Amino acid sequence: xxxxxxxxxxxxxxxxxxxxxxxxxxxxxxxxxxxxxxxxxxxxxxxxxxxxxxxxxxxxxxxxxxxxxxxxxxxxxxxxxxxxxxxxxxxxxxxxxxxxxxxxxxxxxxxxxxxxxxxxxxxxxxxxxxxxxxxxxxxxxxxxxxxxxxxxxxxxxxxxxxxxxxxxxxxxxxxxxxxxxxxxxxxxxxxxxxxxxxxxxxxxxxxxxxxxxxxxxxxxxxxxxxxxxxxxxxxxxxxxxxxxxxxxxxxxxxxxxxxxxxxxxxxxxxxxxxxxxxx
Length: 279
Fold this sequence. Notes:
mainly alpha, 0% strand
């Protein structure tokens, strides 16, 4: 189904490397699954009539849950049909996660640079509409990819991974410049910058290697498999771990808790009064 350009055809790998990849994937699964379940429980339990948690973070965690499950199955099974469906499910979850990263960056940009618009943008109905649109768009891309087994598949995935980098960078720079002119408290500025920095970092270390890999496959096929590809096999399953870190970082009390812990272990007696961020 995938042809020689399929970038995740692990069944063509050397047997010893395939075993390493399988063990690595299932170790990540056993670590990430409890973390995702706990994070989703915490987010849902914090939802009240007057407090709306980040819908986009919940969607990212759902996509991570789908991803680690599909990744564990398609790296283990030998049945070709099951492998095919699980790989496309994995690809679908990756695209969903990338697009919601852009949504988080856009939300922070609108909050700082266009505060008047944020009242409308933060409504739960708007977020649900955006979320549904992201899931549909990702599904459409995957369906088009599954229907074309030639160079079109590679270039479609190439642009699907590359295009979000432009708005991601725009929102980061725009938010950074808006913060320098705003009256937002310093602690909140640091919180927002850390979130956007982590979002861009996650995209850079996972999406850009995938872009390079897809382009390389479109030109040479799997005959050019090398150490860079092996590094990607180890790197890509780590994505959900950083998504959990993003969930922790987006908690309003993250910096106050972190600095209290830091000062306690340093033996400082300085009292730190930090107001939890509301963004």
